[in-house]
Fold these 2 entries.
Entry 1:
Amino acid sequence: MIEDVIIIGAGPAGLTAGIYARSRKMSTLVLDAADAGGQLISLYPDKGIHNYPGFAEVQARKLSERLVAHAESMGCRILESFRVLRIEQGDGFFIVKGEDGEHMARSVIVAIGIGLFKPRKLGVPGEEEFHGRGMDYVLPEKDRLVDKKVVMIGGGNSALEMAIIADSVTDTTLIHRRDCFRADESVVESLDRSGVKRLLETKPVSINGEDKVESVTVDCNGELIEIPADVVIINIGTTPDLEDLKEWSLELDSEGLLKVEGDMRTSRPGIFACGDVVIYPGKYRQIVTACGEAATAANSAYKFVKKPYWA
Ligand SMILES: Cc1cc2nc3c(=O)[nH]c(=O)nc-3n(C[C@H](O)[C@H](O)[C@H](O)COP(=O)(O)OP(=O)(O)OC[C@H]3O[C@@H](n4cnc5c(N)ncnc54)[C@H](O)[C@@H]3O)c2cc1C
């Protein structure tokens, strides 16, 4: 079967593109290398989102579940655990190839976000050794933190918000190497209202323990301090992995991001793109911008495939 559109990536951008494609009754297949939901489900499922219009606050997991349910209710078929490796050219259609098969479509929308991202590592002794034994990059569910001492490392929105979540059930310390946070002012205000202890201008030196994490040693203005800890979360960002994209014969910028025109077309006719993966002057990486670009990309794919009289 040749689909009208294949969407690569089931994060907010890909799912929104699917919703818009289906509103035009295009046959739509959404492929994702991991689980549908994108960064919301894989990087910050328990974090509150405060800037998605219509929701004063919504948990990332809930928003991603709603996006998936909405896309499916519109008739999108979502195939998880399908990592796209190549996009080959057929006669009037594309062949989207993965490790375990291929799918065909008259148009493609690339919505792979920051790719197969990995959490950024701190590079201190104990980080690898205790990974999964008290040390992690994602905050465990709140119930599993009760009566544990949590140390959060980082100074961005995510680190602060996860520290606030942890603090609602247990003793939590936030460590940041600078003298102020880079998080949004509204998030810093929430931190001020919480009971999270802070150590600024403080660098983690090592994560220590026997079988599991027992403490973190930090350098606080030249003085080494040992902080007791049962759970250490390193939350200092993610490293994008956009290697797959290099094989898709699309024009990229020097950072490996995908260049697009105003209608979200790429350098390859019939292939469109949206979300964190695209770059243009003033690009702002947020859910709402990803969704906006997705609506445009889906509309452009519709015009390309169906060639309506008004296009
Ligand atoms: C910690 C953190 C907190 C954030 N908080 C907020 C917030 O509060 N508000 C806000 O608006 N934004 C927030 N963001 C930003 C927001 O998450 C992103 O802008 C948004 O997820 C971009 O959506 P996307 O669909 O473009 O990409 P993603 O969410 O990254 O989804 C891309 C999908 O593509 C899949 N994929 C990648 N490569 C392939 C491949 N080769 N084949 C198939 N599938 C592939 C991935 O598995 C993934 O599911 C936050 C980001 C982070 C890291």
Note: The helical segments are 12-23, 39-42, 60-73, 157-167, 185-193, 287-306.
Entry 2:
Amino acid sequence: MLKKNKKCIICSNPRLIKYLDLGKIALANSCLNKAGLKRPELKFPLRVYYCPACHLAQLKDWVDRKMLFEDYAYFTGASQPLHEHFRKYAEDVYRKFPTQTKQFILDIGSNDGILLKHFQKLGAKVLGVDPAKNVARIARRNGIETKALFFNLNVAKNIVKEYGHAGIITANNILAHTNNLHGIIAGVKKLLDEKGIFIFEVQYLGDLIKKNEFDNTYHEHICYFSLFPLVKLLDIWGLQIFDVERVDTQGGSIRVFAGHKPLLFPVNKRVLKMQNLEEENGLHNLKTYKKFGTVPQKIKKKLLKLLIGLKKQNKKIVGYGAAAKGNTLLQYCGIGTEIIDYIADTTAFKQGKFTPGTHIPILPPEHIKKNLPDYVLILAWNYASSIMKNESWLKNKNVKFIVPIPKVTII
Ligand SMILES: [Zn+2]
């Protein structure tokens, strides 16, 4: 179930250096049902390593992919802010690339079809590929043709035979979740039309480090990208990045645009500028990573001091958002039901379950009304502003919010 990788995923450098160690924890997306609470829970080391050769940050302890993704409990469509994000994404791509969007559009890791649905509305022919069978089934039910597979070169070859080449290939929050980067990019190279565009989003390591987002580390999240290693990876496969944009999903991400070499598009200045900025900001320097490795302990100390102090005053504390990052944070800090009564979450299939490792009940947000807390710890801090807006009535009831990242704050 656990594989120990020895070399850098992109450049095969064997000398990887550990900079972050969160100990042994349960898989962040594996919420438990009642029966699951009685069984022994599997825990795996969660450590992140830096490659000084290509600057990719990565896990070396790989949990079996089937265990992680075949019954994946993350539906992008369940998240309202993401809906809006992908609607704008589709419209933006449609406006910028009118020729390419006339051909079919393939989305790798298409989840419940959240992005493809918007492309379809605009008139595009679409196809999704996603390894999670349960999620692919839902996408198909929503009218999005979806293959329940891990995308790779072979899958790409079969798609070319059946559908021809794709004008646009998208892959959002997928590259970080794979140890088969070369397989995916080889497939993209094969499937992409000669004038086609490969567009992908990844969480941005520059933001993760700058904003202390250590809880964005979990076993599903194998690679942590700055722009530099992506340039290198695509170059190996004869692809080149011609533009990059900052987007604010997932605590700070980048949207990257690439095409076949030689490029048919001018390279935007932003591409070089971002790489230069990465070097200036220390992302090519081990010291930066080692310093980041000390962040979790500092946040843990502050957060526990605050929460334990509140419990001593008999304050009632609940969590908000049983997100993967929240499960990393709770497990690393050792926060369980002695501190948090329950976690409110709008996602229906998580409700009635328990958080991995810490076994805190997950309940619908309506529960807060019935059982008013004194404090709400926002675990899905990337949605903190929309959560506080949706639950603004709590302010009138004198309930306070605690946001743990980038630093422990009471609002
Ligand atoms: Zn490397």
Note: The chain has two domains: 76-291, 295-410.
